[in-house]
Structure formats: structure tokens, C-alpha cells
């Protein structure tokens, strides 16, 4: 499980765009990208005035780093996902994003149970999620078509999940079409694997493929 102990808003500022790592805060005036739209660090402001075109390597590296930070995985784990995507039939870049989307913490986030992927990772790590009727605390577990995701009965007694049930019904969460959500019981079913049109992240996966193909 990836653990970042520095302020995560620095990651968004480094990539120059919102990665939605703080949930509702990212949509408020407190968002660091809106308040300080330059990279973090002592010389962050100076980079706005530097001239010159970014090299191909830098462009590819930044895209790979952005993908890692969006999904919250370490470099070694991300490399393993790429190797697996390369061995799978189809487009390597699309396969890579599909594997990242199928992580259990990302699925919990996509279902609207958590406001952000870091929060979803915490919910899974604390043992509140059941996968196919069994408690799991592995945020990186990959779901498959037909898998069932639900909240542990013991966890449903907690205030957070009691409020979540009515909240999910009120705000009508937009769930990806590869997932099916039962808002009454806060349970879901994986209908199929996601395709590129189902993945609404601002990533150019071809640049990531080019980075690892150097």
C-alpha cells in the first residue's frame, strides 16, 4: 500500500493539475492548485518563467509519475502492472489503465463510498470492505467480472456508513458502466472489465508505454 506522508497537494502542484487526492477540498477555494498554481519548492515560481521545450523523456516521465500519483502506487508496483499489461493481449497502455482501475481501492472510490482514492485505501485497509463475502484489507486486490463488493455487517453500525447509505441515494453517484451499485445495501457487482472509454482520467497512456520502451 502506497503511503505518502507529505502534503498531497504538493503532488497536484508538481503535476500542474488537480489529481483529486483530497476529495471535496479539491473542488473548494482551498485547493492548492487554484491558490498556488506553480510547482512546490523554493524555486517553484521560477519554473513559470523558464524558457525551452520539455524533452520527450521529461514529458514521458511526468505522465508516468502522474499516473502513479493518481492511483497511489509505488514505482516497483507500477512497473509490475506495466509488465503484466505488456504480457496481456491488446493495447499495453489500455491494459495498464484497466489493471489500475480494477484495484479494490479504486473500485471503492468509483462507487462513491469514499471521496478520494486515499480515503478509499484507508477504508479497505481498516477491514470495512468484503470481497465475495470475505473481509479483505488488501487495497491492491484486483477485481474480476462477477465479483461482489460490500460493507462488513459490523462496519454498517458505524456512523460513517449509516450516513453514507442516505448520502449515496441523495447525490445519485455516477457509477461507471462496468460496475453496478445497490445504494440501499451499499453493495456492488463488477459487470465486466473497464475499457478505455470507461476510464475518465486525464492520462496519455501512450507516453507511459514510450517511457518503459526506451
Structural descriptors:
single chain; 214 residues; alpha+beta; Ribosomal Protein S4 Delta 41, Chain A, domain 1; Structural Genomics Hypothetical 15.5 Kd Protein In mrcA-pckA Intergenic Region, Chain A; 5-stranded antiparallel beta sheet; 41% helix
Structural class: alpha+beta
Profile the largest sheet: 5 strands, antiparallel
Tally of individual helices = 9
What letter string, H or E per element, gives the SSE order? HHHHHHHEEEHEEH
Straight-line distance between termini = 28 Å
CATH topology of the domain at 103-190: Structural Genomics Hypothetical 15.5 Kd Protein In mrcA-pckA Intergenic Region, Chain A
What low-confidence regions span 5 or more consecutive residues with pLDDT below 50? none
The number of distinct β-strands equals 5
* Shape verdict: globular
**What is the rounded Rg?**
18 Å
Label the CATH architecture of the domain at 103-190: Roll
- CATH class division of the domain at 103-190: Alpha Beta
Q: Helix coverage percent of residues?
A: 40-55%
Strand order of the largest sheet: 2-1-3-5-4
Percentage of residues in DSSP E strands? 5-15%
Amino acid at each position: 500500500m502506497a503511503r505518502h506522508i507529505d502534503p498531497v497537494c504538493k503532488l497536484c502542484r508538481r503535476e500542474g493539475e488537480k489529481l483529486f487526492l483530497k476529495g471535496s477540498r479539491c473542488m473548494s477555494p482551498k485547493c492548492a492548485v487554484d491558490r498556488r498554481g506553480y510547482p512546490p519548492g523554493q524555486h517553484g515560481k521560477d519554473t513559470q518563467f523558464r524558457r525551452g521545450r520539455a524533452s520527450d523523456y521529461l514529458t514521458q516521465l511526468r505522465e508516468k509519475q502522474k499516473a502513479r500519483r493518481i492511483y497511489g502506487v509505488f514505482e516497483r508496483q507500477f512497473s509490475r502492472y506495466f509488465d503484466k499489461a505488456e504480457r496481456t493481449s491488446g493495447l499495453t497502455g489500455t491494459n495498464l489503465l484497466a489493471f489500475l482501475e480494477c484495484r479494490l481501492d479504486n473500485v471503492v472510490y468509483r462507487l462513491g463510498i469514499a471521496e478520494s482514492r486515499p480515503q478509499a485505501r484507508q477504508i479497505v485497509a481498516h477491514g470495512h470492505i468484503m470481497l465475495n463475502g470475505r473481509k479483505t484489507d488488501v487495497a491492491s486486490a484486483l477485481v474480476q467480472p462477477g465479483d461482489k463488493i460490500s460493507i462488513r455487517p459490523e462496519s454498517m453500525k458505524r456512523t460513517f456508513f449509516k450516513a453514507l447509505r442516505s448520502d449515496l441515494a441523495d447525490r445519485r453517484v455516477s457509477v461507471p458502466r462496468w460496475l453496478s451499485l445497490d445504494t440501499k445495501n451499499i453493495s456492488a457487482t463488477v459487470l465486466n472489465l473497464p475499457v478505455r472509454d470507461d476510464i475518465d482520467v486525464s492520462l496519455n497512456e501512450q507516453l507511459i508505454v514510450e517511457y518503459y520502451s526506451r
